[in-house]
Amino acid sequence: MVAKKASAGKKGSSPNVSKYFKLDGNKLTRLKKNCSRCGKGVFMSRHKDRNTCGKCGLTEFNQ
Fold it and tell me: Which of 11, 26, 32, 48 could pair covalently with 43 via S-S, beta carbons 3.0-4.6 A apart?
């Protein structure tokens, strides 16, 4: 029989999600944009000329 590979870990939120927010006193601001197709909790990555969603692949080009 073939042995199963160990799972890569729990899928879900990234451990670096705290880097997506900035805390100023009692005010919390988002540093990355939410995906308009996936909804809240799915952040878009910032590139030089575009924003891209890693979940659905939506790409928004910057002017």
Answer: 32
Of the candidates 36, 35, 43, the one whose C-alpha atom is nearest the C-alpha of residue 18 is 43
| Both structure tokens of 46 | 């910032």
Model pLDDT for residues 43-61, shown as the tens digit of each residue: 899 999 999 999 999 999 9
Neighbours of 26 (CB within 10 A): 5
The three-state secondary structure class of 15 is: coil
- Count of residues making up the chain: 63
What is the C-alpha separation between 32 and 12, in angstroms, rounded?
18
- Could you state, in order of their start, the residue ranges of all structural domains in the chain? 21-61
